[in-house]
Amino acid sequence: MRGSVWLDALTPKQARLCSSIYNELREEGFDLFVTARDYAETLQILELEGVPYRAVGRYGGASKSEKLIAYASRAQKLVNEVNSIELCALISLSSPSAVRVAFGLGIPTITLNDTPHAFHVGRLTLPLSTRVISPLAIPRRELIRLGAEEDSIMQYDGVDEVAWVRSHNPNPNVLKELGLEQDDLFVVVRPPEEKAAYLSNLSLGGFSDLINFIVSKGAKVILFPRYPDQRRLAEKVNGVVIPRRATDTLSLYSYSSMIITGGGTMAREGSMLGIPSISL
User: Fold this and answer.
1) Buried (b) or exposed (e) across 52-65, using 16+ Cβ within 10 A?
2) CA 94 – CA 126 distance, rounded (Å)
3) N- to C-terminal Cα distance for the chain?
4) Can you tell me whether residue 19 is helix, strand or coil?
5) What is the pTM of this model?
6) Starting at the edge strand that comes first in sequence, how are the strands of the sheet with 277-279 ordered?
């Protein structure tokens, strides 16, 4: 196959998946080119996993206009990055800017999607994708509703997180990095994606109460905030530990008492490790 495979990551979860795909394809002898958006721990995870990447674009913020401006700016920058590279395919977890750039440049796109509730992202990516890959648990009609061609859909019986959880062995050194002991009682917490378009009316008040409740019961909270305002809110609470950099979260989960998350990825990772996990 001529040309490199282009991988694009927008979020920490996508960075995990990108790393797994990168390692698998590299072992198969493929040339690879990776781009990633500067958002939360995305770039740090790629560095932690030893994946070379080009940082392109930033997170746009909460408002629709900010998102649109950031999207347009990133699309232009991606064109500049890839236009002189021979690429045979793009693989992404529904990256609007990358998929639309690839479509415009005639690059075949393989788009993974496990969040059909993210309507805007689906509508911006699935109609332009050569192949759409999703878990079997997602009804095909949901993908077609978002614009996927029926004959482009490929489904598998499982979840994305298996790709990086299946071979993991817990490392206790992660506890030392965070000032914890193996017998410490702690709960891993991640707030909701409150600034995503599909959660635009969400309030953080209840999540703040949850953190205070956990601490009042004598447990520490290891918090992974998504945004600076979430970080500032949690820093006022004694008993909350906020990692300064991306860390070996799978090892951290293995020593935790519970995982509570406003998303689905951490809950699925934790459940596969045998840790009680709640997705709000």
Assistant:
1) ebeebbebbeeeee
2) 7
3) 43
4) helix
5) 0.89
6) 240-241, 220-223, 186-190, 258-261, 277-279
What pLDDT does residue 198 have?
A: 45
- How is residue 245 annotated by DSSP? S
Structure tokens at 202: 């969400």
Mean pLDDT calculated for residue range 234-263: 93
pLDDT higher than threshold 90 for residue 194: no
Domains and their CATH numbers in the chain: 4-165 (3.40.50.2000), 173-279 (3.40.50.2000)
Copy the structure tokens of residue 120. Answer: 């805007």
pLDDT higher than 80, residue 66: yes
Return the number of other C-beta atoms located less than 10 Å from residue 200's C-beta.
11
Indicate the SS3 state at residue 252.
helix
Percent of the chain with pLDDT over 70: 95
Rounded Cα–Cα distance for residues 133 and 154 (Å): 5
User: What pLDDT, on a 0 to 100 scale, did the predictor assign at position 199?
Assistant: 46
Nearest to 184 by CA among 193, 176, 194, 192: 176
- How many other CB atoms are found less than 10 A from the CB of residue 272? 17
3-state SS assignment for residue 113? coil
